[in-house]
Amino acid sequence: MNIWRSFLLVAVLYLLGGLLVGMYMGGSHDLELRPLHTHLNLLGFVMMTLFALVYRQFPQMECGRMAPIHFWLYQVGVLGMLLALLGVAWRLAGEDMLAPLRGASEGLVVLGVMVFGLCVWRNAR
Ligand code: HEM
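^ thats the input. predicted complex w/ protoporphyrin IX containing FE below
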């Protein structure tokens, strides 16, 4: 699995999603989706592009199997967070009902970043 390529490809998909949601908000004046738009762009595009650039520039940061673990924890976590944000915005379920999904997903994102941080710590000191 080529980590930087995978992060970059997914990042571009999230950017397209973020831009479309932004255009929808601008056109409809419906700003309920603002948190979704922001997180699609920032967690989806900006962060994943930064991860891709780090792995491209510094392949030693992959630390063997650690990079795929970072990738999958981050992917599942971000997707869960975005679904929870969408659910709240579209009132698909109460905020209370979606809180466990949001909390668990945030936890996965943080775990993924901790795996990344461990490799950075090992290699960049
Ligand atoms: C086609 C491109 C884009 C469009 C049409 C768009 C549209 C919008 C709109 C309509 C809002 C709500 C403004 C308001 O509160 O009155 C907004 C907020 C925001 N956008 Fe975008 N946006 C675009 C691209 C981006 C990108 C690329 C990023 C970040 C990388 C971004 C980050 C944000 C942030 C941080 C907010 C503020 C959210 C908040 O206040 O909760 N946007 N955008």
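Residues 95-124 form the longest helix (30 residues).
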